[in-house]
Amino acid sequence: MIVTQQLAELVAACHWIGAKGWCPATGGNMSVRLDGQTCLISESGQDKGCLEAEHFLRVDILSQRVDDHRRPSAETALHTLIYRRDPLVGAILHTHSVNATVLSLAQAGDSLVLNGYEMQKSLAGVHSHLTPVTVAIFDNDQDIAALAERVAARDKLEGLRHGFLVRGHGLYCWGRDVKEARRHLEGLEFLFQCALQRRLLEAK
Ligand SMILES: CSCCC(=O)C(=O)COP(=O)(O)O
Ligand SMILES: [Zn+2]
User: Fold this and answer.
1) Nearest 5°: phi and psi at 72?
2) Mutate to test the pocket of ligand 1, among 73, 101, 172 (most ligand atoms within 8 A of CB)
3) At a CB cut-off of 8 Å and minimum separation 6, what does 108 contact?
4) Residue closest to 137 by CA, chosen among 116, 151, 124
């Protein structure tokens, strides 16, 4: 029953993301954990703003095996990595917003630091606008397995929290359930917009 409810919430989140314009064309992918071994991941190539429950495929978290003639997301390896590294992650949202795409290109180096914003408190475990939030940035790669290896290596060193950016590509974020993943997505998107607007003002 809980799984059915989580899937219904994920479908609703996909429609909300679509309405926000954060998954244009066929961009983005979304998933929800079923148990310790399996998750449901969106079918590759679909318009993610129009997904329904039947567009999610059951994937083995360890082997990435799928019992279906359809293809799960081309970025499945990133979802399964995130589920493997933290058993408390219950849902993952990957989006292609303009702000995440532009900011990840404009920001030099491998991190974006957000500080001084009350909305940092939309992220689990952050209780003050003075607690800096560091969002890791990874260079994009068409080899998703290679990208997943870089993400795993950095996670081992620093511990990734809430989400990360892929340069010129988009945002991955997660939560213990769909509701929390959605809150993290909305909070991070708000913070990205603030960071970008500030840069534009300061450039004048
Ligand atoms: C124009 S979308 C390019 C692929 C991508 O980055 C993405 O998020 C969607 O891929 P999927 O296989 O999950 O549809
Ligand atoms: Zn993508």
Assistant:
1) -75, 175
2) 73
3) none
4) 151
> Token digits for 178?
């769909």
pTM for this prediction: 0.98
Distance 170 CA to ligand 2 centre (A): 6
pLDDT in tens, 190-202: 999 999 999 999 9
How many whole angstroms separate alpha carbon 41 and alpha carbon 13? 14
pLDDT tens column, 63-121: 999 999 999 999 999 999 999 999 999 999 999 999 999 999 999 999 999 999 999 99
How many degrees, rounded to 5, is the angle at CA 38 between CA 35 and CA 43? 130
Tokens matching residue 68: 């279906």
- Residues 2-203: name the CATH superfamily: Class II aldolase/adducin N-terminal domain (3.40.225.10)
Return left, alpha or beta for 159; rule: phi > 0 is left, psi -120 to 50 is alpha, else beta.
left
Cα–Cα dist 118/116, whole Å: 7
CA 192-77-109 angle, 5° bins = 40
Mutate to test the pocket of ligand 1, among 17, 22, 26, 101 (most ligand atoms within 8 A of CB): 26
Residue 167 has what pLDDT? 99
**Residue 96 annotated as binding?**
yes
Instruction: Please report how many Cα atoms fall inside a 13 Å half-sphere around the Cα of residue 107, on the Cβ side.
Output: 26
Q: Give backbone dihedrals phi and psi of 35, rounded to 5 degrees, phi first.
A: -160, -160
